[in-house]
Amino acid sequence: MKLLISLILLYFSFNSVEIKKKNSDCNKSKSLAQNKRYQEAINNTLQTCDLSHVENLNFIAKCYNNLNDYYKEIDYLERVIYINNKNKKRENLVTNYLDIAKAYRKLNTKQSISKSISFLKEALEIEKSFSLTNKIKYSLCNNIGNYYKALSNFNYAIKYYKKAIIIAKKLNDSKKISKTYSNISTINININASSKQLKTAQNTIKTALSYDSISFPDIYTNLGIVNYLLSDYKTAIKNHNRAIEILTKTKNGDLINLNDVKKCKNKKLLLNTLFEKTYALIKLKDKKHLTKGLNIIKLADKIFDLLFKETKSEKTKLHWRKRAYHFYYLGIHISHEINDIGSAFYFSEKSKALLLLNEITFNSKPILPDSIKTRETLLKKTIYLLENEINILKNEALLKAKKDLFETQVTLKLLTDSLEANYPTYKNSKNNLNQILSLRALQNTIKEKNTCIISYLWDKTENQFNVLYGIAITQDKTILFKINNLKLFDRKITEFKKFIKKPISSLKEKTEFENIAKSLYNDLLPEEITPLLVNNKLLIIPDSDLQSIPFEALLTKNNDYLIKNHEISYAYSATHLLKNNRIKRNPKNTFISFAPINFNYDNLINLPQSKSEVETIANLFSGESRNNEYATKNSFLKNINNYKIVHLSTHSDTNDSIPPWIAFKNTKLQLNELYTTKNQAELVFLSSCKSSLGESNQGEGVFSLARGFFYSGANSVISSLWNVNDKSNSEITVSFYKYIKKGKSKNTALRQAKLDYLNTHSLSQISPYYWSSLILIGDDSPIKTPSKPLNYKLISILFTLLLVFILKKQIIKGNK
Questions:
Q1: Would the pTM of this model clear 0.85, i.e. be above it?
Q2: 489-521: string of b/e by CB count within 10 Å (b at 16+)?
Q3: pLDDT tens digits for range 306-325
Q4: Separation CA 416–CA 43 (nearest Å)
Q5: 8 Å CB contact between 690 and 344
Q6: What is the tens place of the pLDDT at every residue in 225-274?
Q7: Residues 553, 500: contact at Cβ < 8 Å?
């Protein structure tokens, strides 16, 4: 691994723009930034300025901050801190720590906020060696208060806020005093606050406004939230409008448009305010206000598209996707209230797998010459390898890897900037957001009357309505429905998952499971959509925790598993399914399998069952079976792009702290390595554990191995939802391929293989644990496979014998 990284870095050290340059005049960059042309300012700085100078790195970080690209901002600030630490410029580190703490806070995760606090505490430590100005002391105390408040550690928050106010009063700075009082007010603002707490918050806000009433729009946003919680919705809207007017420098917060938004410097606060305003409009309930709310969601959708295009970092794009998700949930809620099913479907689709859709669309187009594409891929591969190394390295090796990572990222940035300038379609294709299917367009693509698509949206974090929404769609009908009482529903999902991940071994467990499975069936497939469920084929587009359950194992009112009545497959979104299916794939060969069987690293147990599994399947298709020492990671990466069916029978795993991986003979392949791999497979079959699981990201879905194979080109993936049972899994897998060989669709083949298993087993062995872990994601059409090749040698012998027979007959006839 280290040798590979070193070789790639050596290659690019001779073939890329130098990181170190003469520190030429950077005034052009500053001028571009003053005119809010931040990307151009960054590009000019990278091309003309010395990146060993911290002022240039700081400048780039500030530009990324203005572009709301927080992860990129952090990359450059970390480099600044590294250089200042190395040069022992501790007095300069205070502002560096402040800046990076603010950037981490904007990511708004528990982990990032904890990092913010640790950076600020580092800054306070420096005070023991250097005398800090009161202005910096104020910023440190005020921000530490903010971050402790975000972690709900209110006692520490108040402690630091009080220090900040004392310092602000020494400075005689009314703006700072106002800001801190506004921050203090938010300690008493939450959905469960008592009226006494909300009145306290109101009084604290009044104190803040008495010091400064125009500098901080978030004061009015906070006041609007208090009004909302006190059920004074019209006043809430009025205060939110005041915040919007200050942010956008307009006169009427009800009339802002995208051009006004583009001029707004703090788009994050603007979006937060629009979000809170929408909640207040919903509470007024009449169609006029609900329509206003829907228009806000549509405007927010355009803002998120704008941020998506401005942002270069995939991590920051994902950050904004998570924030957008909550808006789309509100959009569906309003659409349900006013019976606008078309908008509900749009928001449901926009809330799912947009990054994946964008990547597979971009990767499918031959935009760049092969040599340039190879160069770009190599750089990305190096970045992913270095990121994997950083997770396990320490001390000097860690610092070296971080330095290499930073320089490789800069090299990639310079390359992509050049490509965007020279290949306009490259830039446009990377940010093509106008791909979402309309409801009517989707219905026109449903070729079979017996197909029903059901898409769910379940916001588990920003959900004041205690409702989950679903949309059931057929060729000519659509029903928008909801599931109430989510706390109870969530408990049912948790219980269901416990039952399906282990054998059911007692009558008591069987009864409890049946009750849960029937209840969930009634929730997820309610009576109002029953007329659409007469159809045989169900395509499920799950969300949140629904992504980790097999609908096949739900029990109908007749006490039958749902699989007995329906073919069931899954998709990340309807748009992704259809767009991905249209990509042209032309692999040379039919089938290849990889089965390491025996392992000698990381305490992985051997899988003797896999040998007969892969050899049986390979014989069906006259394909290749790479077993034992031939099932290496390099062999897999070299061959994956050439086969219609790729089958892996091995170990895989993931959990909260470990990204998904899959094992080969010599080493593991990490999820991010699939992002620089290409395949043309009609089907990737992951006969391994937890290959459908990974980190769940709102707005995108689960980042699993299955998703990774779609990213790299697959049309469909069969993957598992838990630790599979080797024997039953192998039995179902072989049966599935036999049906595929007979020309059955992937969906039909998997269903029939599972039914065969259920029909030939009994008692505990028919527990969902044994048969329902494998699910089909993506296209479900049949796979065209060639018939077994003719035995040309045998045909040649038969032809020769026939020829001899005919000649002899002619000779005998001539003699007569």
A1: yes
A2: beebbebbeebbeeebeeeebeeebeebbebbb
A3: 999 888 899 999 999 999 99
A4: 10
A5: no
A6: 999 999 999 999 999 999 999 999 999 999 999 999 999 999 999 999 99
A7: yes
